[in-house]
């Protein structure tokens, strides 16, 4: 079988998940042909990792203004997009117009206008666009889909979904570019797209109407001042106050973060270690949402980014009983060096409560690798030989749009105080 070729744009924290997989596990089916980024130092470091960590060849590098040139020079089969969220649509659309299929990191994009541009581009170019929802592939999440599909609790009428980010991982969104909602759509888009996609995947439906509330209630300078804090700093590097701050990220103490970010600052000025209690944070850290689905099910959802533990609780109430799920994830910092820790599990349980029977625990397959064992399965699905999948976990651009529309509608609702109809946002 002829190898598929891949070019990648955006060599930051998420990129190694993809290029590392090709270099390590999929050399027989995939080939890397180019990197593109705003920052040459970061691309050079990615090439260094290809050689030193994976014993793979260096690939040609192109600066952001040479993106089109990369695609014309290398003619890849696929373009992998792992840039800042607000730029996803630019690279996705241009790649499809130049004849590439696209694999993009979530979220697909950050607002309804960009989503419509992507939908129109897929229609216009007839290219394939895939969103990498690794949580679908985690064995416990697939098991939930199986139980619901098999009618174990009958028709699902209501879902209560609580997601917790702790003070290590949750705080990390407020140290970096995600703190500015203009870059990411806020956590209701950037992070919750995973969760809304899971509910869509589990119920095989998506929301009709969304009402949301949210605010910045813990992070940010104003909140810290209210709690009596008086010692502030702009970034951790070089700050005496940061030395005693639990929330500080010390780039110089982590070789991977130092090479990828601290040493690359000279080119673009991006600081990866900003204070989570600084000014200029517009992303909410406390969010609540209610949605009515097309199939009439009701979702209540909450996200907190400063919890004592990491993971989620989700409960399904159906016509034949109740399904309760608890998952505790190990904490991590993005690009902290150990990719296997991202979303790895400390514990998990699924309990079925039949309406007229005794409750029982459901056995869950043990998954190895990041995100509860979902990462290796997703990567095999992307770069390896396709296998038949009863649950159709590979997410299309339509799945990607539907998942972000819940968060986009939530952002509109937070601004207006009014419920939002999802069908008013885009034309599929």
UniProtKB/TrEMBL annotation:
Gene3D superfamilies xref list: Dihydrodipicolinate Reductase, domain 2, NAD(P)-binding Rossmann-like Domain
Pfam families in the cross-refs: GFO_IDH_MocA, GFO_IDH_MocA_C
GO MF annotations, alphabetized: nucleotide binding
Name this protein carries in UniProt: Dehydrogenase
Source organism of this protein record: Niallia circulans
Similarity comment text for this entry: Belongs to the Gfo/Idh/MocA family.
Gfo/Idh/MocA-like oxidoreductase C-terminal domain sequence ranges: 145-422
Domain Gfo/Idh/MocA-like oxidoreductase N-terminal: residue ranges: 5-133
InterPro entries: Gfo/Idh/MocA-like_OxRdtase_C, Gfo/Idh/MocA-like_OxRdtase_N, Gfo/Idh/MocA_Oxidoreductases, NAD(P)-bd_dom_sf
